Amino acid sequence: MPPPPAPAPADAKTKIALDVNGEPVEVAFAPHKTLLEVLREDLSLTGTKHGCELGECGTCTVRVDGMPVLSCLVLALACAGRRVRTVEGMAAGGKLHPLQDAFAELGAAQCGYCTPAFLLAAEALIAGNPRPDRDDIKRALSGNLCRCTGYIKIYEAVELAAARMRGERAEPTPESLYGVR
Amino acid sequence: MASAERGLRVVGKALRKVDAAAKVTGTTKFADDLFLPRMLYAKLLRSPHAHARIRSIDTSQAAALAGVKAVLTGKDLPIPFGILPVSQDEHALALDKVRFVGDPVAAVAATTEETAAAALARIAVEYEPLRPVTDAGDALDHPEPRIHDYGDLGNVHKLIHLEFGDVEQGFQDADLVREDTFFFEGSTHLPMEQHAAVADWSADGKLTLWSSTQTPHYVHRALAKVLELTPARIRVVACPNGGGFGGKSDPFSHEIVAAKLAMVTGRPVKITLTREEVFYCHRGRHPTLMWVKTGVKQDGAITGMHFRSLLDGGGYGSYGVASTYYTGALQTVTYHVPRYKFQGARAFTNKPPCGPKRGHGTPQPRFALEVHLDKIAEQLGLDPAELRLKHLVPPNSITANWLRVGTMGLGRCIEKVVQGSGWKDKFRKLPTGKGIGLACSSYITGAGLPIYWNPMPHSGVQLKCDRGGGVTAFCGSTEIGQGSDSVLAAIVAEVLGLDPLDVAVVTGDTDLTPVDLGSYSSRVTLMTGNAAIQAAERAREIIARHAAAQLDVSPERVAFAEGRVFDVERPERGLTFADAVQLAEAAEGTVGTVGSYTPPPSPGKYRGAGVGPSPAYSYSACVAEVDVDPATGIVRVPKIWIAHDVGRAINAATVMGQIEGSVYMGLGEALMEEMAYRENRNVVHKIPSLLEYKSPTTLEMCDVVTYVVEDPDPNGPFGAKECGQGPLLPVPPAVANAVYDAVGVRIDEVPITPEKVFKALRRKEKGEPGRFGPAGFPDIAWPAPTRVPPPWEGGDGKAVPLTPGASPGTTRSRKPRARARGQ
Amino acid sequence: MLRLPSFTYLQPRTLEEALAMKADAGAEGMYVAGGTDLYPNMKRRHQEPRTVISLMGIRGLGGCETRDGGCAVGPCMTLTDLCSHPTIRQHYDTVAQAAGLVSTPLLRNMGTLGGNLCLDTRCNYYNQTYEWRQAIDFCMKKDGHICWVAPSSPRCWAVSSSDVAPVMVALGAEYVLVGPGGERVVPAARFYHNDGINYLTKQPDEILCRVRLPRPDGWDAVYHKLRRRDSFDFPVLGVATWVQWQPGNGKRETGRVAEARIVLGGVASWPQEVPEAGAALAGTSLSDEAIAAAADAAYRPAKPMDNTDFDLSWRKQMTRVYVSRALAELRRRRSAR
Ligand SMILES: Cc1cc2nc3c(=O)[nH]c(=O)nc-3n(C[C@H](O)[C@H](O)[C@H](O)COP(=O)(O)OP(=O)(O)OC[C@H]3O[C@@H](n4cnc5c(N)ncnc54)[C@H](O)[C@@H]3O)c2cc1C
Ligand code: SF4
Ligand code: FES
Ligand code: FES
Which of B233, B531, B666, C26 has the least CB density, counted as fewest CB within 10 Å? Predict the structure, then answer.
């Protein structure tokens, strides 16, 4: 049996390499830091937000190897060699991702604080299910709290973006933008 | 579309918000996203006692810890503050007494957040515990020991007694007089963003505070007062708020502490509250016990109404005096009430302070009133929708308590939801377990009076027109997700014929922007909107003057649209907006204008008339459909129909978002949200976490059908009224009324939890009244009433002098019980 | 920001390595899998290991294979993977269903089966920050001497809140544990203790290596969960019901219950089996009367305490309703077959 690697002193910084939004990154931090803390504090990626740091709200959602997870409960050290995707990685070449575009169009981001998390959770949903129905969306987003929108504009935006990502020419319905008049 | 008919190009459309791209890319900088060089981190030590005197504090161990740069206690910030001039009862750090578990006692700034936290554990505080007051009833029972040494009576903070006409006469004229008691549990805002602030003290003696605040102007005032700095040396920047809902409208301890720590250390200081601490900031919905007695005619016409409320205020004043008045103010603006009497009381208790949460003081009485009316309609054998429709307050009228109602679209709202929901085919006709309920409401579009009574405007806008064709609008308003920046840009763009994205907005910065009082009381669209119209019209006038000269037409013929300034009669003759600005600038110098807004004076002139008046009232009607499982009492709400009279939608999509979001929050309050305390365990908050404070998830949120009703009000910009708070109000009573329709039990208490429904159903099975709710309202030593004759009795809005020898009010006879729950 | 205390993080590749690391760390060492229970607890200072040893990189602790007609599941399988695994969905849909009811999709992407089965017991006097607990004085589960739920009680009543554990007990699953002394196999029911503090019979250094599910032959199971919201929330009551149908002549089964187990989650410090309730079903064909008798039997010993969401008397009442409904569903599934 190989001897266990000698533990680093608890607070000394440990360096890891990982892929963040398609870029190779090396970062050093105290070993007990969460991915959330390292993203925000050591990589200046403040697009990832937090509302509880206990796994109770979903606001800190990022994707690790494609899977949406709660960055407040992921140890950054456990991400060595992995692919991390945050909201900063979504818009490409100065163009909004279709989900971002639909969120903007429908007003699905009110205060915008929960928005990065919803976008990443929705992106993962569509990746696995390009044609999600309303129930699929509700279930996939049931781990993300939003206090502003009542979720409805978020559902509509995910539906709209999914349709556009399938290549359909979809537009928001007048009722969703103007209500029933 | 309606707006096109009226020639509006921006107003009324569903446009992307001006900050939409920043929000969806995560580039919006919230307060906690700011990192400044050499920044320190602060943390607050909070009281573990609900009520105690501080004997001593020893901070030496904390100060000695490596990395700790400063430690503060109450002595360092001895000047009190508070949002209302009448309740300057808070200290940034407790001076000699703590008043709830979580009250801040000391603060540390250190090089890391962890060091600051470690330092807190090294501060030794010696307390002398006092008897805690657990709720409003307890406060009535125990005037001593007092939580504050001010207030109307013992631990009663405020007592109000207003009488508009002779209600007793009203009851005598009635065919039916009904009394009910209700209880509305406290709830909190729960913005997803935890409060944060960053302070910086520059070498030249200027303080800058970035904060997640809805009211930078009042934070500015509080900082100047407590830190004894001249206001000119303080800059408060309101960062975009990650949700506010009223919870970020007070100046807070952590803001003042961060500022002081920055001054002491000469380094930037950040403080970000934990979720638990956000529960301690609170300022949320007051738990309110209510009693209402109403006389009605056979046809449902109200002959008189007497309303009592008892509010559990928590440990400090906050907005509480206003909240208490609000529990009695808006009963009169929906259905005609010819005689009205209101008695309100707010108690101090040893819990986090209550204050203004979405709907500020009005969802509680609205719940009571709308359920009460549902019961009255049933007793009279009337359809509750018909009863309401028949007795609406007429538009352009003055109510018994002297509120001036402008446009009034409630009738149209009721018709929309009644039709859309299929009400007539469903009400009292659905199978057991399924039910439908209706309720209505109204809300103010901005408080008619400012917090500090003065004759200055409530909102100011400055415009700068650039020779490049861009326009910058400066305004103190704060963006909390409601879309105020977009409203400002849209209105300026509409008047000047621009694309809203060509209007830069600079908001919520006391150095850069003229005062706007803040994002509370649904005032921003109306007040900044009107100020923006004035500023933009003034700019248009200047620019038009010079464009007219160039085009050789009279200025009245000059129109602004699509980035051009042209002759209306020959639209092809014109110039670009930029060229027009350059002409004006060449002739007159820099093109800049200002606009401001002050609400019209209110007709009410009595003491207490300051709360309730508004330039315009919004109206909502709601139908809720519920499924109740009789075996468990679990209530599900599959669908809600809501119609809201917004006067005019400035941005249609934003209006939709506000209405849907209000329904969401109303649903949470109706079914599950609750600030719960362990009364027997030091009055700790039972569940200060996002897991145990139940906010509905996607799986609880109902479908919503939204009807936008536009009844433009002359006081609103382009006719706009509010939509951010009003649509919350009818949701809890509509759900309660639907539960009754479904299973025949009355839950006169919010939230409508399964336990309560279950108990009421068991009672009904046993032949007892199928009801869950409070048993009664305690006796309170009300002061003598302020008597104000209503307009139709020939009054002038002033109180009539008390007749000598009039009874000073009821005296307390028996031992009061405030909340006999579960009876 | 609520932060973790500092600790050393180790990522062994083999079981032996993990055991050696744990031996080195002693009482200050703890295993972690998905971390969705341990990390929040550490942030609240419920557990304060100096060394945290991740099991996620250990080969052989994931996956799921069929053996002797049964199925052996690796504890490091995430709940999401467990829910979507074809074998689990086909033969153990109740396991998939219970796992799918845990918390939120995001947490299920992280949380593992092993972590779920070893989940710390919960109590709303305990699942609070250090400062909160300090304000009422600490309780015996961590740092104190008294139980605030039952102040005269000598024991802690923190609640077993796992969704999958009651199902495992009901199914009669077996857990394979590996410790310094080697491997042992314990029936799920004997893995748990009815004590809020010592809620597992597992030694702290033992690793749960495999969960063996019985072969699917003539039994069926159903899990029902009660909670405030359909996402996020832990069970305040979980009802796992299992019946072995009597074999009939040849292939045809008679539709009578040979044996039954009813296990309740969220009402005690362990998954609480109610043998009387199971006994009330034996020999019946899940008639209304039999179901009522079983529900009644399950209702009696259920002893919810005032330390979770909801009013405790209502929660007790709900035992009857939820057991009846779970059994009715078993009956429906039977007749639908
Ligand atoms: C907001 C929230 C809601 C939740 N809701 C639910 C819910 O509804 N239902 C529910 O059941 N759970 C719930 N959970 C708890 C938890 O997320 C899940 O139970 C999850 O499956 C735990 O797995 P894990 O791998 O993350 O555990 P970890 O945190 O990694 O471990 C938990 C414990 O088990 C030990 N352990 C883990 N694996 C092994 C092993 N193989 N051998 C020995 N010891 C081991 C660890 O040492 C630790 O003590 C919730 C958690 C949160 C934060
Ligand atoms: S049951 Fe008692 S001892 Fe156990 S965690 Fe709760 S309060 Fe503490
Ligand atoms: S911050 Fe709330 S789940 Fe991570
Ligand atoms: S948009 Fe504000 S919390 Fe979701």
Answer: C26
